[in-house]
Each structure stands twice: as C-alpha cells, then as structure tokens.
Amino acid sequence: MSHPSVEDIKIKSRGLRGTLLEGLADPVTGSLSFEDQRLVKFHGTYQQDDRDIRDERRRQKLEPAHQFMIRVRAPGGVFTPEQWLKLDAIATTWANHSLRITTRQTFQFHGVIKRELKATMQAINAAALDTISACGDVNRNVLAASNPLQSRLHAEVHEWAQRLSLEFLPKTRAYYEIWLDQEKLADSGEEEDPVYGKVYLPRKFKMAVAVPPTNDVDLFANDFGLIAVVDADGGLAGFNVAIGGGMGASHGDPKTYPRLGNVIGFVAPDQVLAIAAAAVTVQRDHGDRVERKHARFKYTIDEHGLDYIVAQMEERAGFRLQPARPFHFDHNGDRFGWVEGEDGRWHLTLSLPTGRIADRPGAPHLTGMREIANVLRGGAPGQEFRVTANQNLIIAGVPAGERERIDALVRTHALDQENRAPTALARASMACVALPTCALAMAEAERYLPDLNAKLQPLLEKHGLADAPILLRISGCPNGCSRPYLGEIALVGKAPGRYNLMLGADHRGQRLNTLHRENITEAQILEELEPLFARYAAERGQGEGFGDFLHRAGVVALPPYPTHTQVLVEPAGKNAALGEAA
C-alpha cells in the first residue's frame, strides 16, 4: 500500500488538523495514522517507539511500544524557576523522568504515551510555554547567544530570537483547537497564512542569532543566521546575514551533504524581519517539493546559485544588502563555571553530558535542579535558567550573596565539575538521542558517548593531552542533529557498533570536517586516533586546535564539496580567518 506524499498530506490537512482529534481519541491503538504522524510534527511532537523491545513485541504479535517525543518552543532557551518546576513535574508525571536539553536550545520530553499526550500538551501550556513549530516543515526553535543577562547587547539579541520565532509561527489555530480545546471559528481550516500558504515549507527551516566573538549557536549550520555587529557605543548596529547552512545528509547519496552558510551582507535592525521573510519565502517558492532529502534551503541555493537567491531575497525585501561588516569568532563552545554580568549578577554554567537531566545513582541531577529552582523562585527577580545549544545549563542572574548557597546544592547533587570530574573532552562532547527511540538511528549516540569518552581519555592522558578541549560529536545517523560535521572528531552512525570517522573541523564552527575512515568499529576508531593524538602532542603550535593541526599537518584536507559549502571570505581585515575555503 502506497502512502500519500507529505506535500499532499499538508495540502489536504485543513491547516494541520487532519484527523488528529479522531486519532487521539482512538483507544484501540497507541499509534496515529500515517498522515497524522506527519502532521503532528508541526504541533511539536514525533511518534516513536522503543526499538530495544520492538522485536520482542513483534514476536508476541503486539504493536510496537508507541510513545511520543514532545519538544518545547523556547527561542533563546530561557526558563523561569516556576517554568522549570512545571517542566520537572511533566517529566515525572507523564514522561520518562528526565528532561533533555536539545542542540536547539530547548527541552524535549520522551516516553509520553498517546492517551496522555493531550494532558501533557496542556500542562506545557499551563507553564506559559508551547510546542508550536518545534518540529515540522516550518521555522523551528530560534537559537540565540546563550545568556541574555550577560550584557545589554546579549539582551537585545535574545529579543530578536523571540521576534523571529513569533513572526514565523503558522497562523492556523489548529494547535489551540486540538490540544487546548479552544472553540472552532467559522473559518477553521481556511485561515490565510501569508508566509506558509497551504503547503508550508518544503522542509524544516532553522534560524540562529550570534554575538561575536562567541559562536555558541553554530550559526553557520543554520538556514538563516544573524551575526550581531556592535556600534561605536557598544550597542547593536545591525547584523551580518548568513544563509544556506544545514547538517543533514544521507549515506551514499552525493546529492546530499552538510553545508555551511554564506555571509551575504549586512542589515540594519529595522530590516531584519523583511530579509528573514524573504529568505523563508524564497525557500517556500523555490525549494524541492519532490525529493524531501533534497529539499533544504542549502540545496535550493546550490541549485539556483547564490547570486540568484540573494537577488531574489533583495527584491522581496525591497532593499539591497549592505556589504558585510567585520566580525570575528573565537570559538563555538560554552564557558563553564561562574561569570559576572554587567549588572553585577553571576551566571553559573554547568556541564551536562548529552544534556540529559535525570536522577542516576550518585548523581541525582533532576532532584538537584528542582531544589535549585525552588531557591531561585523565592529569591530576587531575574534569576532564571538558560539552556545552551551545546546542551549545557546556565543558572543565571544570581546575586553575589547567593552563590555559596547555589554552590552547596550543586555539590550535594553532583552537578559540579569537581564531584563529577568531567574531562575537557567530555565538556566539549555532544550526541544526539539516537537509539532506542529515534526511528532514523543506525547506531548508538547518547548512550554510547560516556563509554567512548572513557576509552579516549586514557589515550589523551598518555600523550599529555588530558586538558585539550577537543570537540567530539556523535550522531546515530547522517542527519546530523548533534551537528557532527562541525566536530574536530565526529562519529556518524552506519550500523550498530559501526561509524564513519570524520576529522578536521575547527573550534569556531567555520570549517566542516571530512571523512577519514568509513564504516569502522570502536577498536579501529581508537587505533586511528591514538597516533594522531601522539603527533598532535609532539607537533602542535601554541594554542593550535586539534582540527587546525590535522589540516596543517596534511592529515585531512578540506571536504570534497564545492567551495560554496564553506563560509566565504569576508571583506579583508581582521576576519581573514574566514577565508579558509576561498
């Protein structure tokens, strides 16, 4: 039996409604229909099943153990203590007793069953949050520099993430009717959407806003990016615009590849929404609607040419882009420990490997964060939680006098670096969820990362590299949710226990890695890496990163993609480092 295409499903969905109400009410199955599984993504949730027990359930002639992943829309990743406590309650009431920070700076819940899906969605709404557009062929959660309390400029940039997210929410009221039981209006199913129309986008669309010199959002991995440019007074002059980034690829399909965004020019703040809308609508009208694997904005740009796409954007926006202004990124990581903000308040960044917050033996992290949230709730206004695009957590806005109290709770619940003693490698590591819930996963990622780190660390220590902050990323498949193609070392899953070994990205998020060995086992991975660690230890320059060394030493070359998959050189000046791919 053939299924309708996703494009047909969207067109006939009556504004993303489909038969979701009927499917949710069906007690016979834990699943939704094929069509509704595609539509429910636009509402912020994916249907999955527990693959660890899939075969056993098949033998017992039972349907798969269907469950739902729910992703919260939280542009910039900011949560009040009250919201944190409500999310904690959701995780422990309906989900699998964990909160997971995603690589798009928000939380997702795992393990929610269908009959409790609506109650969970309503509880998220009761926390003054929603899941609209967290998934689906629309603009996804907008990333922003991790701590808006750090400075006035960071606060302005965070506000732009909020504005972009609101600007590109679908206009359909389906979410409110289906999940929140709001009344249907006369035009339900016929709402006009000037941005998305009736067919929405060909695929997902991702936006990010960065504040140099920190590229903590991996800006060039996004379809549309804004790089803050500071004026003479330290305020926001405007943004450089980057387009065409994306991590997804498919094994064995040369038409698919990761790509870094191109810097195409500068806009003033009052031009931002117009140029963003132009990018979204150009992709809406020119993106591939036949082959979904080839439907991202990066392929549209490469198919039509960058100059053509930029000209189309300028025509729709009604103005010409100004030349890009100088900027410089130092790194794409997070700064751990306490940092003082401009207002004298303090911000503590905690390393949370893979972003999973749960209670484990000797590490009751979920309980610890609940106690910290209760302290912040009763303290001075402005104390908040910030999650980062690197899956870490910031306890923000803490008065100097409260630091000792927070530190005590952090130590008691093994949330601190001293008690857990994470290595530099672990702090710079990321992994996607992969097995057992992701349907696309070919190999382990989140569950495997601690074991891999434990085997790599002795090799690093052997060569005097224990404190080298090497950027390691693991993805269970080539779709790249953990942005593996920006790792100095990356494993991309091919099959259970087998990975492609990718090497040579940089610490600024401005160079892709390249394939070093294909379809190899853990033993082969370790065998490949140890001599490279030895060479790095003996031959590296002062402050030289592992990926940069691999390029200088000729171990790896630039990826075998056209040069337009790299960040193109900016106007000459202090940003000459961007010219690596020119």
Structural features:
582 residues; alpha+beta; 5-stranded antiparallel sheet; 18 helices; globular; disordered C terminus
Write up what this structure looks like.
Helices cover 30% and strands 17% of the residues. It is built from 18 helices and 22 strands. The protein is globular and about 70 Å long. The relative contact order is 0.10.
Summarize this entry quickly.
The strands form five sheets. A five-stranded antiparallel sheet has the order 1-2-5-4-13. The protein has a five-stranded antiparallel sheet with strand order 3-16-17-12-11. The protein has 582 residues and is an alpha+beta fold. The radius of gyration is 23 Å and the shape is globular.
Distance between the termini: 49 Å
How many DSSP helices?
18
Shape: globular
What structural category characterises the helix and strand content? alpha+beta
What is the strand arrangement across the widest sheet? Answer: 1-2-5-4-13
Number of strands: 22
Binned, the helix content reads 25-40%
- Kindly state the mean pLDDT as a whole number? 93
> What is the gyration radius calculated from CA atoms?
23 Å
Task: Report the major sheet.
Answer: 5 strands, antiparallel
β content, as a range? 15-25%
Low-pLDDT regions: 562-582
